[in-house]
Amino acid sequence: MPADPIFSPMLSRRQLLRASAAAGLATVLPASLAFAATPLKLAMGWVPNVEHAGVWIALEQGYYAAEGIDFSYSPGGPNAPDPLVVLESGKAQFAASDWLPFIDAYGKNSDLVILASAFPTSPAALLSLAKKPVREPKDLVGARILGQTPANKTIVEIILRNAGLPLEYTMVPTGFSPEPLLAGDGDAYFCFATNQPITLEKMGLTEGKDFFVTLQDSLGYKAPGGVLVAHKSFVKENRAAIVSYFKAYIKGWQENAKDPKVAAELAVNKFGADLGLDLDQQIRQNELQIPLTKAAGSDKLFWFDPALVDGPMAEVARLSGHENVPPAKDLIDLGPLEEALAAG
């Protein structure tokens, strides 16, 4: 860890505090040497379940505090305000969002910036059954595709167009439960690889035999799932604190990968105790999401290729009505994350 610039390069802030406490002098340090933790609040995009596994471990193990961060969060969910609204109101320093809502907000405030991706390999996927599996782009031609949002249609067309295939398919509106797929209402269902497939597993079905989960990433639509957003002005003024935040966050997720049950128990019994979460489901969700915290072929947590912003991500934004999508250099700053990764 780099030495704190306030002190001599030979003595970091943490070393000084440890030495003072050991000598019984902590209570008599002059005010100029008493450091308060930096408060950082995250507006989450979803309820406090195991999706935030690394956060729970970092809190429980004191990783944020050890980095000088006073971390807090506001839970998301269907009844919570939009995280970007919370960010813009000044009630949080970070917001968990998605690409298209971020672009919407950026059009109103260009001080926003993306700092990382929660899932560099997006959990967004297509779920299909063995009688008509969707494993590659050609399987979408002529298919009835169950989707929840207009963006689903855009993504299908990007996948087909990039594969040089005809835009021949039928979109079928549906909800967030996979039962319509089982009922034969469609051939493929837009899902999250960490969610609806677990429902099928609980029904006794087996992936790879009874059903298939094909990530959009493997179909050629490569875009990270979930982005961490802040204000550029805040990043400029608090870069060291943000690096410290990422160090704790990374450590939390590294620990999570060692035993998916730990964070699941924290979600069920503590942080999401009022949600009625099922422990087995939370453990399975955690197992499925851990590989998605890195991009394919990368060993960097939460890192994604900036070229994606100027490629497929810009394309889906334009097809969704955003005619002028700024270049990646204006939209993302992976510098603090890169510094935290290097320190680890």
From TrEMBL:
Family affiliation: Belongs to the NMT1/THI5 family.
Protein name per Swiss-Prot or TrEMBL: Thiamine pyrimidine synthase
Coiled coil: none
Residue ranges occupied by any SsuA/THI5-like domain in the UniProt entry: 49-262
Keywords for the protein's UniProt record, in alphabetical order: Iron, Metal-binding, Pyridoxal phosphate, Thiamine biosynthesis, Transferase
Pathway(s) per entry: Cofactor biosynthesis; thiamine diphosphate biosynthesis
Keyword Iron among UniProt keywords: yes
Subunit note: Homodimer.
Function summary: Responsible for the formation of the pyrimidine heterocycle in the thiamine biosynthesis pathway. Catalyzes the formation of hydroxymethylpyrimidine phosphate (HMP-P) from histidine and pyridoxal phosphate (PLP). The protein uses PLP and the active site histidine to form HMP-P, generating an inactive enzyme. The enzyme can only undergo a single turnover, which suggests it is a suicide enzyme.
SUPFAM superfamilies for this protein: Periplasmic binding protein-like II (SSF53850)
